[in-house]
Amino acid sequence: MLKQFTVVDYGKILKAMRSVAVVGLSPKATRPSHQVAQYLLDHGYTVIPVNPGHDTILGLTCYPDLQSIPGHIDVVDIFRNLNDVPGIVDSAIAVGAKTVWMQLGVVHEAAAAKARSAGLTVVMDRCLKIDHQNLFGG
After folding, report:
1. Cα separation of 102 and 25, whole Å?
2. Strands 60-61, 56-57: parallel, antiparallel or unpaired by DSSP?
3. Per residue in 84-116, pLDDT tens?
4. Is the dihedral of CA 6, 10, 15, 17 positive or negative?
5. What string of DSSP letters covers 68-119?
6. Radius of gyration of the chain (CA)
7. Predicted TM-score (pTM) of this structure
8. Closest CA to 112 of 79, 78, 83, 89
């Protein structure tokens, strides 16, 4: 049986998104999640840190989970262990996010299928920062 793949227009997502919840955002400047979040801030996006161990990251209020975030979330950017992905996707669906973006090295087919079934766009194994730089310059 052949798998069906959805063609995703990364440029369309990057142009349309305004708010990005970065799940697993690290306060350490050397970590990829921190670098991506800083890049997004520098390019005019609203970044919403999600990390239950911190009150603020990058000078922004940090939330323990997606459900605690007031307001709308366009993209849920996942920097977490593969085992955490299904729960994060469930939360993304529950809060009405438009897109689930799993960073480089993060692929979870079952969670992706669930998100797609709920109407979310899914991106796996790609980096928001790299795609933005490749499409729009950095």
Report:
1. 13
2. antiparallel
3. 999 999 999 999 999 999 999 999 999 999 999
4. positive
5. G--S--SEEEE-S-GGGHHHHHHHHHHHT-SEEEE-TT---HHHHHHHHHTT
6. 14
7. 0.92
8. 89
